[in-house]
């Protein structure tokens, strides 16, 4: 039936004349009823039908994507406890309020405050997200109304947060955002916000470090410690560092520490010997109670002792106040998370102008210990709590970070 009329001459050689007549009648009938049509027309019709089906399929896929666009993956705490209470679940995707930007998060980092919150001993401040994470890096997805800074969609940024960093999206005050160093990846940039801003705040806003100061940095292998060493050296101070392992002390030396001592030693005596009886003008203390007596012994007259953590407990000896008065020591305590939005905005602005360019010039360097996938958030917390890391543990939120 698919023969064309031009092929009838060939058929004539094989079929009797009567059969040719019958075949012609059949062809005419089929053409008249439309059963035989141009194969190209059939192809076009099939293509149109296929296109229609694909269009419906695309619409269905689009509908699914629109539905899922209202949610995001986020780390959740089943109940306060050890690292294994953490899991990755689903939360509503945030919407930026006036003055906020929405960041598509590619990486974040684990901080001690996160582990304390997970354990139930450090609740988020009023108004902050209950999702863990004090920092995030990624790309601006949306700029909220009333934003007055230069941020635009697609900008690669770092953000200081009160919470919410362990998620695929986070909305944050535009003033708490700063640009990633141009040559840095998302992973590298994730080692900056919380620890560098904390160290910068302690040294320059609280302790008012000066050239010639002796700065004693405890937990020198931590994120804040590795940052503080470099910031103090840049301020032309002499840095003495303590840490729990020789490898951490070696890294502190590499970053510019003039002297290093193991935490299990009588480091207070070593500090006084190294400074020829002067002592430390600035003490950066994240340990607290268990270091109280030694810090007092290692302090210089009129020292500025900044307490920003209580890893060694909250109780000091009975004669603690007497020892403070004997050397006129200024005991200063500080946190960053609970500070006002305006305070953080001023801090970020100062950091962006004074510190950020020095990453690109290689004067400052970040220290990353380990990078782990988002799904291993519980393992990341366990690793930080092991005290075996030097620098930051990074959580990779997206595969293409």
Instruction: Give the percentage of residues in beta strands.
Output: 15-25%
Count of alpha and pi helical runs:
14
Q: Structural class of the helices, strands and pairings?
A: alpha/beta
Estimated helix fraction: 25-40%
Q: Which H/E pattern describes the elements?
A: HHHEEEHEEEEHHEHEHEHEHEHEHHEHE
Describe the global form.
globular
How far apart the termini lie comes to 61 Å
Number of strand segments? 15
Describe what you observe in this structure.
By secondary structure, this protein is α/β, with parallel strands linked by helices. Helices cover 37% and strands 22% of the residues. It is built from 14 helices and 15 strands. It has helices spanning 8-12, 17-33, 39-68, 112-119, 186-189, 193-206, 223-234, 246-255, 267-274, 292-298, 320-326, 341-354, 357-360, 377-385; strands spanning 71-77, 86-92, 100-109, 135-143, 156-160, 169-173, 177-179, 214-217, 238-243, 259-262, 280-285, 299-307, 330-333, 368-373, 392-396. Strands 3, 4, 5, 6, 7, 14 and 15 form a 7-stranded mixed β-sheet that branches. The radius of gyration is 34 Å and the shape is globular. Mean pLDDT is 88; it is low at 1-16 and 35-67.
């Amino acid at each position: 039936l698919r023969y064309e009329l031009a092929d009838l001459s060939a058929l004539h050689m094989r079929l009797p004349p009567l059969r040719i007549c019958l075949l012609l009648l059949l062809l005419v009938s089929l053409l008249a009823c439309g059963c035989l049509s141009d194969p190209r027309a059939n192809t076009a019709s099939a293509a149109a039908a296929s296109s229609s089906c694909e269009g419906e399929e695309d619409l269905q896929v689009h509908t699914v994507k629109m539905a899922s666009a209202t949610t995001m993956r986020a780390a959740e705490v089943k109940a306060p406890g050890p690292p294994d209470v953490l899991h990755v679940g689903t939360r509503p995707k945030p919407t930026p309020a006036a003055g906020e930007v929405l960041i598509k998060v590619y990486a974040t980092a684990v901080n001690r405050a996160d582990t304390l919150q997970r354990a139930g001993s450090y609740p988020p401040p009023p108004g902050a997200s209950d999702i863990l994470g004090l920092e995030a890096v990624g790309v601006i997805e949306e700029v909220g109304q009333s934003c007055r800074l230069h941020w635009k969609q697609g900008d690669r940024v770092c953000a200081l947060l009160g919470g919410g960093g362990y998620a695929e999206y986070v909305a944050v005050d535009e003033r708490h955002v700063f640009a990633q160093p141009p040559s840095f990846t998302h992973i590298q940039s994730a080692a900056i916000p919380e620890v560098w801003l904390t160290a910068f705040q302690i040294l320059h806003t609280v302790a008012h470090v000066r050239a010639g100061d002796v700065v004693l940095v405890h937990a020198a292998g931590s994120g804040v410690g590795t940052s503080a060493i470099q910031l103090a050296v840049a301020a032309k101070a002499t840095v003495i560092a303590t840490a729990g392992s020789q490898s951490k002390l070696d890294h502190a030396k590499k970053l510019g520490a003039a002297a290093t001592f193991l935490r299990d030693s009588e480091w207070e005596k070593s500090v006084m010997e190294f400074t020829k009886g002067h002592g430390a003008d600035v003490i950066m203390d994240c340990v607290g109670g268990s270091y109280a007596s030694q810090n007092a012994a290692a302090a210089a007259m009129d020292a500025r002792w900044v307490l920003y953590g209580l890893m060694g407990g909250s109780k000091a000896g009975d004669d603690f106040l007497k020892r403070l008065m004997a050397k006129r020591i200024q005991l200063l305590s500080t946190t960053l998370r609970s500070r006002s939005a305006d305070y953080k905005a001023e801090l970020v602005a100062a950091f962006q102008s004074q510190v950020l360019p020095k990453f690109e010039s290689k004067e400052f360097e970040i220290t990353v210990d380990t990078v782990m996938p988002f799904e291993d958030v519980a393992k990341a917390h366990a690793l930080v709590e092991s005290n075996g890391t030097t620098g930051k543990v990074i959580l990779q939120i997206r595969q293409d970070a």
